[in-house]
Amino acid sequence: MLNEEKVRYMTELAIFEKTQGKEIFSINRFFKSDYVGIQMFRSFFGYTFSYALILLLWILYQLEELLGTISFDDVVRLGSLCGFWYLVGLAVYLGISWAVAARRYNYAVRYQIMFSAKLKHLLNRYGKADGPGNKGGKS
Fold first, then answer.
1. H helix intervals, 1-139
2. 111 in Cβ contact with 20 (< 8 Å)
3. CA–CA distance from 49 to each of 35, 54, 121 (Å)?
4. Domain ranges of the chain
5. How far is Cα 126 from Cα 2, in angstroms, rounded to an integer?
6. pLDDT tens for each residue of 8-47
7. CA 24 → CA 7, 15, 78, 104, 111, distances in Å?
8. Taking the complete model, does pTM exceed 0.85, yes or no?
């Protein structure tokens, strides 16, 4: 006869592992500082690429006006202005990326602990009653 509580625990753990397990178990392979650092590294390159692409599109859109009326001093001023806004935007974006990555890591650690506790509870409560005390090997 099946134990309904045992089946409920096992089903709950299987559903959790199927829905959130892949993300949580992959995050928990890292230390927090490593995971957050990797995410910030990815964010840096993503932001830099996006900013360069948007800047290139803006330059192409304004090309006729820029070539016709801009002087060298204006180019220097425009470059320093673009650099300033790049650094400000990068700092804000990396701050947001740090907060999101740290929160995801903390969430994954909490759920990993919960998952392990439920597995341990299942093993302690039902593991010994399923078979003989000797699980194999020499007596």
1. 4-16, 22-27, 32-61, 63-69, 72-122
2. yes
3. 21, 9, 48
4. 32-127
5. 12
6. 778 777 877 777 777 777 787 889 899 999 999 999 999 9
7. 23, 13, 45, 9, 8
8. no
